[in-house]
Design brief:
The complex is a heterodimer.
Chain A lengths: L9 E6 L2 E6 L4 H7 L7 E5 L2 E2 L16 E6 L5
Parallel strand pairs in A: 1-5
Antiparallel strand pairs in A: 1-2, 3-4, 3-5
Chain B lengths: L30 H6 L1 H4 L5 H10 L1 E5 L5 H11 L3 E5 L24 H12 L4 E5 L8 H5 L4 E4 L4 H14 L3 E7 L2 E7 L7 H4 L12 H4 L5 H18 L8 E6 L4 E6 L20 H4 L17 E2 L1 H9 L5 E4 L3 H6 L6 E2 L18 E4 L4 H12 L5 E4 L2 H8 L8
Classes of the chains: A mainly beta, B alpha/beta.
Amino acid sequence: MMHTEAPGATIALTVNGEPRAIPEGSTLADLLGTLQLDPRLIVVEHNREILRDRDAYSTLELVPGDILELVHFVGGG
Amino acid sequence: MTTPGSSGRVAGEIATPTTPVPTVDLPTLDRDELLRYSRHLILPEVGVEGQRRLKAARVLLVGAGGLGSPLALYLAAAGVGTLGLIDHDVVDVTNLQRQVLHGTSDIGRSKLASAADRMREINPHVKLELHETRLTSANALEILRDYDLVADGTDNFPTRYLVNDACVLLGIPNVYGSIFRFEGQVSVFATADGPCYRCLFREPPPPGLVPSCAEGGVLGVLPGLIGTLQATEVVKLILGVGEPLVGRLLLVDSLGPSFRTLKLRRDPTCPACGTRELQELIDYEHFCGITTGGELIHSELTVPSITPLELADRLASGGELTLLDVREQHEWDIAHLEGARLIPLGSLAESLDSLDPDAELVVHCKSGGRSAKAVRQLREAGFTHVLNLDGGILRWSDDVDPSVPKY
């Protein structure tokens, strides 16, 4: 678990229903990197909007209170 | 035979906003059926009217495997009048850990023949329609158009997109379920006003990067959990009771365990159900980057390779080769090739220094997917003599040495 140490150093958001703190100024691409998720293998919903352009992940800066859902491709049956 | 008038018709009590099944001229129930379905009939939400709707309903199950098993068993038992099944596979021993529709004595039989025997034993009142074929763009509309509902229990992305698009084009709800390892997803797509599969997953993932259950494994109980949720949605849709999973994706994690629902909206830019620019079925293998032979097209995973027979020849003639196994330790413990060295794919990057860059490397895994990634990684790191073993240890067992157990 991440802990907030210096005030202002991290921001709080919700990822897949769980609270999470990330460094201030992080982009969506940074978060996916931390979580070791391949952006091509998930669909990202950002504040209830599905993001269609994966190239924009590296410029999307996350802000406090953001709600993210990271949905995997699951194909088995 | 008519139903007893005093049996508690509850049509007025059933909340029936929408049901894809016709609600007039319903078939009647005979004495045996009235008794058989008694636990349904005493539920006010079902009653005789609801049970007759179930009998009138025509549901197509795409796939008679992991998800298809509980769907077929429970929907037959529940008295869905006509169940279609489509599958072209035969029962394999590795299916039995989760595909409870089939038994040990069914190994080698067609899945549909096995399924039909089991379903007739469960409920002889159900009419079965067996489509022993592969669902393709050429036959999908013809097969699906006769059904009120489709339940998607397929195991690959091309068929999932095909089922979705065909359901959207025909206006048939698609009760979706999918599984991998310990997790599953359930939703109801392609209803009159809800989103479809493409509203969520617009484009398929790059070919070969999402492992199948054969590559990544699946908890045997999981399709039971997800398939029964799909069966529940099918029954709810037919009866018109409760809140169907329209516009919601249920995410199931069996380890938590956790059940979360994610709201989905129809996407006005969706090419299938939004703009409707998709007016006919396409080539879904190509769409998902796979040739009709199952090979990957233009994929980063197409790498230089060697077949098991070629490798056996090279080894027999004293070829200086390093065999590199990139599976996990627990897989190595099941079976491995004589003289191979184990470096799991996840730790390959930190082990590069221990490999001779001038040696000729043959990389293998279970079936060739992970080793292809390793070959690419090694070539990027400057290794020039690297080959992928086609078909992995499974094909080695088939073509060269049957004493290597398959798993």
